[in-house]
Specification:
Chain lengths: ~180, ~270
Protein backbone atom coordinates (compact mmCIF):
# COMPACT_ATOMS: atom_id res chain seq x y z
CA UNK A 1 0.00 0.00 0.00
CA UNK A 2 2.58 2.54 1.08
CA UNK A 3 4.95 1.37 -1.66
CA UNK A 4 2.51 2.93 -4.16
CA UNK A 5 3.58 6.38 -2.99
CA UNK A 6 6.76 8.12 -4.05
CA UNK A 7 9.09 9.10 -1.21
CA UNK A 8 8.95 12.73 -0.06
CA UNK A 9 12.20 13.97 1.49
CA UNK A 10 12.58 16.95 3.80
CA UNK A 11 14.72 18.06 6.72
CA UNK A 12 13.07 17.54 10.09
CA UNK A 13 14.66 19.20 13.11
CA UNK A 14 18.03 19.21 11.35
CA UNK A 15 17.99 15.58 10.19
CA UNK A 16 17.04 14.17 6.78
CA UNK A 17 13.69 12.46 6.69
CA UNK A 18 11.90 10.61 3.93
CA UNK A 19 8.32 9.37 4.08
CA UNK A 20 6.16 7.31 1.72
CA UNK A 21 2.63 8.48 2.37
CA UNK A 22 -0.35 9.86 0.46
CA UNK A 23 0.87 13.22 -0.93
CA UNK A 24 -2.18 15.00 0.52
CA UNK A 25 -1.57 13.67 4.02
CA UNK A 26 -1.37 16.62 6.37
CA UNK A 27 2.03 17.54 7.77
CA UNK A 28 0.41 17.33 11.21
CA UNK A 29 -0.47 13.65 10.72
CA UNK A 30 2.90 12.82 9.16
CA UNK A 31 4.68 14.32 12.17
CA UNK A 32 2.55 12.48 14.70
CA UNK A 33 2.10 9.15 12.90
CA UNK A 34 5.10 8.61 10.60
CA UNK A 35 7.68 10.56 12.61
CA UNK A 36 6.42 9.76 16.12
CA UNK A 37 6.64 13.43 17.12
CA UNK A 38 3.51 14.10 19.14
CA UNK A 39 4.57 17.49 20.48
CA UNK A 40 2.63 19.07 17.59
CA UNK A 41 -1.00 19.13 18.70
CA UNK A 42 -4.25 19.10 16.77
CA UNK A 43 -6.75 21.64 18.03
CA UNK A 44 -9.31 22.73 15.46
CA UNK A 45 -7.90 21.13 12.32
CA UNK A 46 -8.86 24.15 10.23
CA UNK A 47 -6.18 26.78 10.76
CA UNK A 48 -8.01 28.76 13.44
CA UNK A 49 -6.28 27.80 16.68
CA UNK A 50 -2.54 27.51 15.98
CA UNK A 51 -2.01 24.45 18.23
CA UNK A 52 -0.31 22.66 15.31
CA UNK A 53 2.06 25.53 14.50
CA UNK A 54 5.44 24.41 13.19
CA UNK A 55 8.17 26.32 11.40
CA UNK A 56 8.71 25.59 7.70
CA UNK A 57 11.65 27.31 6.01
CA UNK A 58 11.73 29.85 8.83
CA UNK A 59 8.01 30.67 8.76
CA UNK A 60 5.27 29.68 11.19
CA UNK A 61 2.55 27.63 9.47
CA UNK A 62 -0.41 25.51 10.54
CA UNK A 63 0.65 21.87 10.09
CA UNK A 64 -3.04 20.92 9.70
CA UNK A 65 -3.22 22.86 6.42
CA UNK A 66 -0.03 21.72 4.69
CA UNK A 67 -0.05 18.66 2.43
CA UNK A 68 3.19 16.74 2.82
CA UNK A 69 3.68 16.88 -0.96
CA UNK A 70 4.45 20.60 -0.59
CA UNK A 71 7.33 19.92 1.81
CA UNK A 72 9.73 18.26 -0.64
CA UNK A 73 13.13 19.78 0.18
CA UNK A 74 11.78 21.99 2.97
CA UNK A 75 13.21 22.51 6.45
CA UNK A 76 10.68 21.70 9.15
CA UNK A 77 11.12 22.47 12.83
CA UNK A 78 8.79 21.16 15.52
CA UNK A 79 8.80 21.72 19.26
CA UNK A 80 11.02 18.62 19.61
CA UNK A 81 13.66 20.49 17.60
CA UNK A 82 14.13 22.88 20.53
CA UNK A 83 15.19 19.89 22.68
CA UNK A 84 13.60 21.33 25.82
CA UNK A 85 16.48 23.76 26.20
CA UNK A 86 15.31 26.85 24.35
CA UNK A 87 15.12 30.04 26.42
CA UNK A 88 11.43 30.34 25.51
CA UNK A 89 10.70 26.85 26.85
CA UNK A 90 12.32 27.74 30.17
CA UNK A 91 10.52 31.08 30.30
CA UNK A 92 7.08 29.56 29.56
CA UNK A 93 7.61 27.16 32.48
CA UNK A 94 8.94 29.84 34.81
CA UNK A 95 6.57 32.72 34.14
CA UNK A 96 3.19 31.01 33.88
CA UNK A 97 3.12 30.77 30.09
CA UNK A 98 1.74 27.23 30.18
CA UNK A 99 -1.23 25.73 31.98
CA UNK A 100 -2.98 22.79 30.28
CA UNK A 101 -0.22 22.73 27.67
CA UNK A 102 -2.15 22.00 24.47
CA UNK A 103 -1.43 25.41 22.94
CA UNK A 104 2.10 25.65 24.33
CA UNK A 105 4.19 24.02 21.56
CA UNK A 106 2.42 26.18 18.95
CA UNK A 107 2.77 29.31 21.07
CA UNK A 108 6.48 28.73 21.56
CA UNK A 109 7.14 28.07 17.87
CA UNK A 110 5.11 31.13 16.85
CA UNK A 111 7.27 33.11 19.29
CA UNK A 112 10.48 31.54 17.92
CA UNK A 113 9.40 32.60 14.41
CA UNK A 114 9.23 36.23 15.62
CA UNK A 115 13.00 36.27 16.02
CA UNK A 116 14.85 38.08 18.80
CA UNK A 117 13.63 41.20 20.61
CA UNK A 118 9.99 41.45 19.46
CA UNK A 119 8.00 44.40 20.77
CA UNK A 120 4.82 43.65 22.72
CA UNK A 121 2.86 44.69 19.64
CA UNK A 122 4.83 42.23 17.48
CA UNK A 123 4.22 39.50 20.05
CA UNK A 124 0.49 40.20 20.07
CA UNK A 125 0.29 40.19 16.26
CA UNK A 126 2.64 37.23 15.86
CA UNK A 127 0.63 35.13 18.31
CA UNK A 128 -2.83 36.29 17.18
CA UNK A 129 -3.30 32.98 15.38
CA UNK A 130 -2.62 30.94 18.51
CA UNK A 131 -5.53 30.48 20.85
CA UNK A 132 -5.15 29.69 24.56
CA UNK A 133 -8.18 29.00 26.76
CA UNK A 134 -6.30 28.87 30.08
CA UNK A 135 -3.84 31.67 30.60
CA UNK A 136 -5.68 34.74 29.35
CA UNK A 137 -2.47 35.35 27.33
CA UNK A 138 -0.81 37.67 29.84
CA UNK A 139 1.33 34.84 31.21
CA UNK A 140 2.37 33.94 27.68
CA UNK A 141 3.28 37.51 26.75
CA UNK A 142 5.14 37.86 30.03
CA UNK A 143 7.11 34.66 29.39
CA UNK A 144 8.13 35.79 25.91
CA UNK A 145 9.13 39.24 27.12
CA UNK A 146 10.99 37.86 30.15
CA UNK A 147 12.84 35.30 28.04
CA UNK A 148 14.53 38.27 26.36
CA UNK A 149 15.46 39.83 29.63
CA UNK A 150 18.63 37.99 30.59
CA UNK A 151 19.60 40.73 33.05
CA UNK A 152 16.37 40.30 34.99
CA UNK A 153 16.81 36.55 34.89
CA UNK A 154 20.22 36.81 36.51
CA UNK A 155 19.29 39.36 39.13
CA UNK A 156 16.28 37.52 40.60
CA UNK A 157 16.16 33.98 41.96
CA UNK A 158 14.24 31.71 39.59
CA UNK A 159 12.16 30.16 42.38
CA UNK A 160 10.64 33.47 43.45
CA UNK A 161 9.76 34.36 39.85
CA UNK A 162 8.11 31.02 39.27
CA UNK A 163 5.98 31.54 42.37
CA UNK A 164 5.00 35.03 41.25
CA UNK A 165 4.01 33.63 37.86
CA UNK A 166 1.73 31.02 39.40
CA UNK A 167 0.21 33.57 41.73
CA UNK A 168 -0.74 35.85 38.84
CA UNK A 169 -2.30 33.16 36.69
CA UNK A 170 -4.12 31.87 39.75
CA UNK A 171 -5.76 35.27 40.22
CA UNK A 172 -6.77 35.29 36.62
CA UNK A 173 -8.39 31.88 36.82
CA UNK A 174 -10.51 32.85 39.80
CA UNK A 175 -11.92 35.78 37.88
CA UNK A 176 -13.29 33.59 35.06
CA UNK B 1 -9.17 15.19 9.98
CA UNK B 2 -12.64 14.04 9.13
CA UNK B 3 -12.02 13.52 5.43
CA UNK B 4 -10.51 10.32 4.09
CA UNK B 5 -7.72 11.29 1.72
CA UNK B 6 -7.37 7.90 0.06
CA UNK B 7 -9.86 8.67 -2.77
CA UNK B 8 -8.06 11.95 -3.53
CA UNK B 9 -5.50 12.22 -6.30
CA UNK B 10 -2.71 14.78 -6.70
CA UNK B 11 -0.92 15.62 -9.94
CA UNK B 12 2.52 17.16 -9.55
CA UNK B 13 3.66 19.32 -12.47
CA UNK B 14 7.34 20.21 -12.80
CA UNK B 15 6.77 23.48 -14.66
CA UNK B 16 4.04 25.99 -15.48
CA UNK B 17 3.82 24.52 -18.98
CA UNK B 18 3.47 21.04 -17.49
CA UNK B 19 0.70 22.31 -15.21
CA UNK B 20 -1.19 23.98 -18.07
CA UNK B 21 -0.90 20.82 -20.17
CA UNK B 22 -2.30 18.73 -17.30
CA UNK B 23 -5.19 21.18 -16.89
CA UNK B 24 -6.05 20.78 -20.58
CA UNK B 25 -5.47 17.04 -21.00
CA UNK B 26 -6.24 15.57 -17.61
CA UNK B 27 -8.86 17.92 -16.20
CA UNK B 28 -10.86 18.72 -14.29
CA UNK B 29 -8.13 19.37 -11.75
CA UNK B 30 -8.37 21.79 -8.84
CA UNK B 31 -5.16 23.80 -8.40
CA UNK B 32 -3.65 23.68 -4.90
CA UNK B 33 -1.62 26.66 -3.70
CA UNK B 34 -1.33 27.41 0.05
CA UNK B 35 -4.24 25.03 0.87
CA UNK B 36 -5.57 27.30 3.64
CA UNK B 37 -9.12 27.00 2.27
CA UNK B 38 -8.79 23.56 0.71
CA UNK B 39 -8.47 21.51 3.90
CA UNK B 40 -11.28 23.48 5.53
CA UNK B 41 -13.50 22.71 2.54
CA UNK B 42 -12.56 19.03 2.61
CA UNK B 43 -13.27 18.81 6.33
CA UNK B 44 -16.66 20.48 6.06
CA UNK B 45 -17.61 18.52 2.97
CA UNK B 46 -18.14 21.74 1.01
CA UNK B 47 -15.27 20.91 -1.36
CA UNK B 48 -16.24 17.81 -3.31
CA UNK B 49 -13.32 17.89 -5.77
CA UNK B 50 -11.19 14.77 -5.72
CA UNK B 51 -8.45 15.49 -8.26
CA UNK B 52 -5.92 18.20 -7.49
CA UNK B 53 -2.96 19.90 -9.14
CA UNK B 54 -0.09 20.93 -6.87
CA UNK B 55 1.11 24.31 -8.17
CA UNK B 56 2.88 25.39 -4.94
CA UNK B 57 6.31 24.62 -6.42
CA UNK B 58 5.85 26.72 -9.58
CA UNK B 59 8.17 29.57 -8.64
CA UNK B 60 7.46 31.40 -11.93
CA UNK B 61 4.15 32.36 -10.32
CA UNK B 62 5.77 34.06 -7.31
CA UNK B 63 7.03 37.55 -6.86
CA UNK B 64 6.19 41.23 -7.21
CA UNK B 65 7.58 43.23 -10.11
CA UNK B 66 6.96 46.73 -11.36
CA UNK B 67 6.92 47.72 -15.03
CA UNK B 68 6.16 51.36 -15.77
CA UNK B 69 2.93 52.19 -13.97
CA UNK B 70 1.90 48.57 -13.48
CA UNK B 71 2.60 46.40 -10.43
CA UNK B 72 2.45 42.72 -11.29
CA UNK B 73 1.96 40.27 -8.43
CA UNK B 74 2.36 36.56 -9.17
CA UNK B 75 -0.61 34.39 -8.23
CA UNK B 76 1.43 32.35 -5.73
CA UNK B 77 2.68 35.42 -3.89
CA UNK B 78 1.73 35.01 -0.24
CA UNK B 79 0.06 37.64 1.91
CA UNK B 80 3.23 37.74 4.02
CA UNK B 81 5.20 38.64 0.88
CA UNK B 82 2.66 41.34 0.00
CA UNK B 83 2.93 42.79 3.52
CA UNK B 84 6.73 42.69 3.36
CA UNK B 85 7.02 44.45 0.01
CA UNK B 86 8.14 48.10 0.27
CA UNK B 87 6.83 48.64 -3.26
CA UNK B 88 3.33 47.42 -2.41
CA UNK B 89 3.36 49.35 0.87
CA UNK B 90 4.14 52.53 -1.03
CA UNK B 91 1.88 52.07 -4.04
CA UNK B 92 -0.97 49.87 -2.75
CA UNK B 93 -1.26 50.45 1.00
CA UNK B 94 -4.88 49.19 0.92
CA UNK B 95 -3.67 45.79 -0.31
CA UNK B 96 -1.20 45.62 2.57
CA UNK B 97 -3.94 46.60 5.01
CA UNK B 98 -6.19 43.83 3.68
CA UNK B 99 -3.39 41.24 3.73
CA UNK B 100 -2.60 42.04 7.37
CA UNK B 101 -6.17 41.19 8.36
CA UNK B 102 -6.25 37.79 6.68
CA UNK B 103 -6.20 35.03 9.28
CA UNK B 104 -3.01 35.44 11.28
CA UNK B 105 0.69 34.96 10.59
CA UNK B 106 0.39 31.22 9.90
CA UNK B 107 -2.28 31.82 7.24
CA UNK B 108 -0.49 34.87 5.79
CA UNK B 109 2.63 32.71 5.31
CA UNK B 110 0.72 30.20 3.17
CA UNK B 111 -2.33 31.94 1.70
CA UNK B 112 -1.84 33.45 -1.75
CA UNK B 113 -3.35 36.33 -3.69
CA UNK B 114 -4.27 33.97 -6.54
CA UNK B 115 -5.88 31.60 -4.07
CA UNK B 116 -8.01 34.37 -2.57
CA UNK B 117 -9.34 35.10 -6.06
CA UNK B 118 -9.79 31.46 -7.06
CA UNK B 119 -11.58 30.56 -3.83
CA UNK B 120 -14.07 33.28 -4.74
CA UNK B 121 -15.60 33.80 -1.32
CA UNK B 122 -17.79 36.92 -1.24
CA UNK B 123 -15.97 37.68 2.02
CA UNK B 124 -12.45 37.41 0.54
CA UNK B 125 -10.45 40.16 2.23
CA UNK B 126 -8.36 41.31 -0.72
CA UNK B 127 -11.20 41.22 -3.24
CA UNK B 128 -12.70 44.69 -2.59
CA UNK B 129 -9.15 46.04 -2.93
CA UNK B 130 -8.74 44.41 -6.35
CA UNK B 131 -12.10 45.83 -7.41
CA UNK B 132 -11.33 49.37 -6.21
CA UNK B 133 -7.83 49.23 -7.72
CA UNK B 134 -9.25 48.15 -11.10
CA UNK B 135 -6.85 45.22 -11.16
CA UNK B 136 -6.57 42.78 -14.04
CA UNK B 137 -6.51 39.02 -13.50
CA UNK B 138 -4.15 37.16 -15.82
CA UNK B 139 -5.42 33.76 -16.92
CA UNK B 140 -3.23 31.34 -18.83
CA UNK B 141 -3.98 28.12 -20.64
CA UNK B 142 -1.54 26.05 -22.65
CA UNK B 143 -2.71 27.92 -25.77
CA UNK B 144 -3.33 31.51 -24.69
CA UNK B 145 -2.94 34.24 -22.11
CA UNK B 146 -5.73 36.70 -21.40
CA UNK B 147 -6.28 39.49 -18.91
CA UNK B 148 -9.72 39.99 -17.41
CA UNK B 149 -10.75 43.10 -15.47
CA UNK B 150 -11.23 41.89 -11.91
CA UNK B 151 -14.69 43.48 -11.75
CA UNK B 152 -15.75 41.16 -14.60
CA UNK B 153 -14.11 38.05 -13.15
CA UNK B 154 -16.99 36.68 -11.08
CA UNK B 155 -20.25 35.63 -12.71
CA UNK B 156 -22.06 34.63 -9.50
CA UNK B 157 -21.56 33.08 -6.08
CA UNK B 158 -18.14 31.36 -6.25
CA UNK B 159 -18.45 31.26 -10.04
CA UNK B 160 -16.06 32.97 -12.43
CA UNK B 161 -15.04 33.35 -16.07
CA UNK B 162 -12.00 31.13 -15.49
CA UNK B 163 -12.19 28.11 -17.77
CA UNK B 164 -11.26 24.71 -16.25
CA UNK B 165 -8.09 24.59 -18.39
CA UNK B 166 -6.96 28.07 -17.27
CA UNK B 167 -4.79 28.97 -14.31
CA UNK B 168 -4.75 32.33 -12.54
CA UNK B 169 -1.10 33.31 -13.05
CA UNK B 170 -0.86 36.96 -11.91
CA UNK B 171 -2.70 40.10 -10.92
CA UNK B 172 -1.80 43.45 -12.45
CA UNK B 173 -2.47 46.75 -10.75
CA UNK B 174 -2.45 50.00 -12.72
CA UNK B 175 -1.26 53.08 -10.84
CA UNK B 176 -3.91 54.12 -8.32
CA UNK B 177 -4.39 57.87 -7.97
CA UNK B 178 -5.94 59.27 -4.79
CA UNK B 179 -6.06 58.21 -1.16
CA UNK B 180 -6.63 54.53 -0.49
CA UNK B 181 -8.84 53.25 2.30
CA UNK B 182 -9.59 49.76 3.65
CA UNK B 183 -11.67 48.54 6.55
CA UNK B 184 -12.74 45.07 7.63
CA UNK B 185 -15.41 44.63 10.25
CA UNK B 186 -15.40 41.27 12.01
CA UNK B 187 -15.65 39.84 15.50
CA UNK B 188 -11.91 39.97 16.21
CA UNK B 189 -8.83 41.58 14.68
CA UNK B 190 -7.28 38.22 13.72
CA UNK B 191 -8.73 34.97 12.42
CA UNK B 192 -12.22 36.27 11.77
CA UNK B 193 -14.10 36.32 8.50
CA UNK B 194 -15.58 39.70 7.71
CA UNK B 195 -19.15 40.76 8.41
CA UNK B 196 -18.55 43.65 6.00
CA UNK B 197 -15.34 44.63 4.21
CA UNK B 198 -14.76 47.74 2.12
CA UNK B 199 -12.01 49.28 0.01
CA UNK B 200 -12.13 52.77 -1.44
CA UNK B 201 -10.01 55.07 -3.58
CA UNK B 202 -10.61 58.81 -3.30
CA UNK B 203 -9.77 59.74 -6.86
CA UNK B 204 -11.59 62.42 -8.82
CA UNK B 205 -14.21 59.79 -9.45
CA UNK B 206 -14.19 57.71 -6.26
CA UNK B 207 -13.96 53.93 -6.56
CA UNK B 208 -15.69 51.89 -3.88
CA UNK B 209 -16.10 48.14 -3.43
CA UNK B 210 -17.69 46.00 -0.74
CA UNK B 211 -17.39 42.37 0.31
CA UNK B 212 -19.77 40.19 2.35
CA UNK B 213 -22.82 42.17 1.21
CA UNK B 214 -23.73 40.28 -2.00
CA UNK B 215 -23.04 36.91 -3.71
CA UNK B 216 -19.81 38.38 -5.07
CA UNK B 217 -17.65 41.36 -4.22
CA UNK B 218 -19.39 44.46 -5.64
CA UNK B 219 -18.28 47.80 -7.08
CA UNK B 220 -21.03 50.23 -6.09
CA UNK B 221 -20.93 52.39 -9.21
CA UNK B 222 -24.12 54.35 -8.62
CA UNK B 223 -22.90 55.28 -5.15
CA UNK B 224 -19.59 56.34 -6.69
CA UNK B 225 -21.39 58.42 -9.34
CA UNK B 226 -23.50 60.12 -6.70
CA UNK B 227 -20.46 61.10 -4.64
CA UNK B 228 -18.59 62.22 -7.77
CA UNK B 229 -21.45 64.48 -8.78
CA UNK B 230 -21.61 66.18 -5.40
CA UNK B 231 -24.52 64.36 -3.80
CA UNK B 232 -24.72 64.51 -0.02
CA UNK B 233 -23.33 61.62 2.00
CA UNK B 234 -26.87 60.76 3.12
CA UNK B 235 -28.00 60.52 -0.48
CA UNK B 236 -25.01 58.30 -1.35
CA UNK B 237 -25.78 56.07 1.63
CA UNK B 238 -29.35 55.72 0.43
CA UNK B 239 -28.19 54.68 -3.06
CA UNK B 240 -25.67 52.28 -1.52
CA UNK B 241 -28.53 50.39 0.10
CA UNK B 242 -29.99 49.74 -3.37
CA UNK B 243 -26.69 48.36 -4.63
CA UNK B 244 -26.01 45.80 -1.93
CA UNK B 245 -28.00 42.66 -1.03
CA UNK B 246 -26.63 41.28 2.23
CA UNK B 247 -28.10 38.20 3.88
CA UNK B 248 -28.51 36.83 7.41
CA UNK B 249 -25.94 34.13 8.03
CA UNK B 250 -23.77 32.59 10.75
CA UNK B 251 -21.59 35.71 10.99
CA UNK B 252 -24.06 38.55 10.91
CA UNK B 253 -27.47 39.81 9.84
CA UNK B 254 -28.56 41.62 6.72
CA UNK B 255 -29.75 44.60 8.78
CA UNK B 256 -26.44 44.93 10.64
CA UNK B 257 -24.49 44.64 7.41
CA UNK B 258 -26.56 47.40 5.79
CA UNK B 259 -26.00 49.64 8.78
CA UNK B 260 -22.25 48.98 8.87
CA UNK B 261 -21.86 49.40 5.10
CA UNK B 262 -23.41 52.87 5.34
CA UNK B 263 -21.15 53.73 8.27
CA UNK B 264 -18.05 52.54 6.41
CA UNK B 265 -18.98 54.72 3.45
CA UNK B 266 -19.22 57.70 5.80
CA UNK B 267 -15.87 56.89 7.45
CA UNK B 268 -14.20 56.54 4.07
CA UNK B 269 -15.62 59.84 2.90
CA UNK B 270 -14.53 61.79 5.96
CA UNK B 271 -11.17 60.00 6.46
CA UNK B 272 -10.06 60.72 2.89
CA UNK B 273 -11.41 64.27 2.68
Amino acid sequence: MTAAFRPIAFVLNGASKSVRVHPLKRLLDVLREECGLTGTKEGCGEGECGACTVIVNGQAVNACLVPVAQLAGAKVMTIEGLKGRHRLQRAFAEFGGAQCGICTPGMILAAVALGPHPTLEQVRTGLAGNICRCTGYEGIYRAIRKSEDSVARRSRPAGRLAKAGRQKTGDRRRKT
Amino acid sequence: MRTAISPLALRQPRSLRDALRMLRDEGPLTPLAGCTDVYVGLNFGTLRDQRFLNIWGLDDLRGIVVGGDVIRIGALTTFAEVIGSPLVRRRLPMLVAASREIGAVQIQNRGTLGGNIANGSPAGDTLPVLAAAEALVELRSIDWTRKVPFVDFYTGYRASVRRPDELITAVEFPRVGGAQWFRKVGTRAAQSISKVVMAGVRSEHPRIAFGSVAPTVVRVRRTEDALASGATLAEAQRILQEEISPIDDIRSTAAYRRHVAANLLAHFWTDTR
